[in-house]
Amino acid sequence: MKYFIVTYGCQMNVHESEKIAGILEDLGYTECGSREEADIIVFNTCAIREGAEDRVLGNVGNLKRLKKKNKNLIIAVCGCMTQKQKTAEYLMNTFPFIDIVIGTFNLPKLGHYIEAVKKGRQLEILQEGDIDEVLPYKRTSGENAWVNIMQGCNNFCTYCIVPYVKGREKSRKEENILKEIKEIIKEGKYKKITLLGQNVNSYGKDLEPKVSFAKLLKDICALDGDFTLSFMTSHPKDLTDEVIDTIANEDKIEKYIHLPAQSGNNRILKLMNRSYTREKYLDIINKIREKIPNCRITSDFIVGFPTETEEEFNDTYSLVKQVRYDSIFAFMYSPREGTVASKMEGQIPDEIKHKRVNKLLQLEKEIQEEDNKR
Ligand code: SAH
Ligand code: SF4
Ligand code: F3S
Predict the structure, then answer these.
(1) Which residues does residue 31 pair with via DSSP β-bridges, in sequence order?
(2) Which residue, judged by its Cα, is nearest atom 1 of ligand 2?
(3) Which of the listed residues 158, 168, 200, 235 should we mutate to test ligand 2's pocket, taking the one with most ligand atoms within 8 A of CB?
(4) C-alpha span between 192 and 139 (Å, rounded)
């Protein structure tokens, strides 16, 4: 029995797929190199932008012919996109050959759904899950080991679907994280450990007693072993001086921070509910540059947020120019149903979003070329 997993979305989802692989291998499946050979195909989906969902729909639709060839093939769709009841039902109704549609919190029960398929198609969306549940995952990222430290997000940036599909912020217990990392070190296969969370800087605020992210970093660095430690993603509003100092002082921590700004304009930042201003963001950048010389800094930007004027976009442009990032991701704003921004007046036409995103990426290219020359 063979399995094939198709993963969309962020690093956290890549790590979720490692859990899916672990569960399937526990059931006796082995990995294969193509959909054609598989007895079970799992789509681990992303809902962050419309484009991500369109790709899933197209690729799932294409499986009809495989199901015709292999009547026993099981097709499962899980992840952020199917955590939305409406989308889950749409998939079930549109593609009668899909066997299992489950949400983000259902993953530990994947084996159960596969077993139950004999009795009929499975659709279930749980609203909560236990982050510390131990799943038998299979690491797939070479010398890097991903370690989840938290799940969900409380920030509700007005454009973002994540809090709705991943739930509220929940931190894993520090002892469980340290235990997992000790095992990773003992295995001896991994040179790098990357901590994952939508907003790692708010790690531990929900634990009793509270644990700070800086403490977690220090405690991991204190473990014996030869490894580099990295993490993502940092939200500017929660990046404390203590975390910056810890990155500066600990040799094991990679000198790299992904610090998404999203916009360089204060009115847009406020509408996005990002809780910082351009000035505060630049203060943090200056602090990083001062305390961690040669620190690589990268960022995400959204262009064409509702009501964004050309001048306001120019503030984003000038921020990129001023900070001179090592690299950036620039996205065209994509309305996500159920979020606050999707209901705002003044949605920006695609044509303008295209122009702005290209302008930003062109600037990024120029900066990199100059830096390379130097
Ligand atoms: N938790 C991380 C980011 C998660 S999503 C953070 O807060 O930085 C990754 C990136 O996708 C975001 O940084 C944002 O730039 C982009 N993004 C999220 N929602 C989007 C939307 N509706 N349209 C376009 N880009 C979006
Ligand atoms: Fe989305 Fe904002 Fe949470 Fe990041 S911090 S996951 S952008 S709501
Ligand atoms: Fe990640 Fe996409 Fe979900 S970015 S958290 S897989 S919506």
Answers:
(1) 3
(2) 160
(3) 235
(4) 13
The first and second tokens of residue 156, run together, are 């509700």
Helix (H) or strand (E) holding 322: helix 310-323
This model's pTM is above 0.85: yes
Nearest CA among 326, 373, 334, 372 for reference residue 353: 334
Atom of ligand 1 nearest to the CA of 262: 15
Atom of ligand 2 nearest to the CA of 233: 4
β-bridge partners, 170 = 151
Output the six-digit token pair for 136.
């038998």
H or E stretch including 159?
none
Q: How many residues does the chain have?
A: 374
SS3 278: helix
How far away, in angstroms, is 250 Cα from ligand 3 center?
30
> Residue 180 forms beta bridges with which residues?
none
Give one word for 14, left, alpha or beta, with left for phi > 0 and alpha for psi -120 to 50: alpha
Structural domains in the chain? 2-124 (3.40.50.12160), 141-254 (3.30.750.210)
- Closest ligand to 257 CA? 1
What separation in Å is there between the alpha carbon of 160 and the centre of ligand 1?
6
Q: Residue 74 is encoded by which pair of tokens?
A: 């099981």
Buried b (16+ CB within 10 A) or exposed e, 74-83: bbbbbbbbbb
**Ligand 3 site, CB within 6 A:** 9-10, 12-13, 46-48, 80, 161-162, 165-166
Given a cut of 80, whether residue 134 has pLDDT beyond it is no
- Write the pLDDT tens digit of every residue in 258-279: 999 999 999 999 999 999 999 9
Distance CA(148)–CA(17), nearest Å, equals: 12
Chain segment 21-43, per-residue pLDDT in tens: 999 999 999 999 999 999 999 99
Burial of 178 (0-12, 13-18, 19+ CB in 10 A): middle
- State in Å: Cα 71 to ligand 3 middle: 31
